[in-house]
Amino acid sequence: MAGATGQGRAPARSGRARRAGAWLALVGVCLAAPAGFVVSDRLEARNDFCSSCHLEPGVPLHQAIRRDFDAAAAASLAAAHARADVLDAGAPREFRCIDCHGGASLTGRLRVKLLAARDAFWYVVGHFEEPQEMRWPLWDEDCAKCHPDFDESEPAEWESPGFHQLAVHNAELGVACVECHRSHEADGDPAAHFIAASHVRSQCARCHAEFE
Asked: Three-state SS across 172-206?
């Protein structure tokens, strides 16, 4: 009987141990997640951190993008932003990568953190590849936090109206900001806010057949 009783208790102890381990793991995650959120916020505030990973010796992450971003003469919309100061608590400071790529809402912030965590994992295990494009493009809210209003001013009599001077283009258009206003491509016209006409025509053709 004693042997039978002892054999019956072992699975119970094992089950309690598993449950205790699961609870400890959950508590660990709950404690680590906020700490990771805060620490990554501090690190992401530095542009050098954003381009500090190396895929091979001497080749930093986003090398061409960072070179363009830091160039004295802006060659892209992102570089033009880098030339501008940002008001932070009323004081000007330099523009940072994370000012666009950080997420404007809680949902946006969580999306960024999940993507960063995934990339960090693949980098640590040695399977990270330099992205050729943004897998998760910026949302309109990321642009609207600094650019909340469209230009709906009236054009001069001799001018054709600009895109956003037509109210129909500013409500439920179905085209995201970054589908026309590409950030890091260097093929845009500086005099037209770095818009690339050849690219934008394809966006216009979604509604206007004459642009096909």
From this structure: CCCCCHHHHCCCCCCCCEHHHCCECHHHHHHHHCC
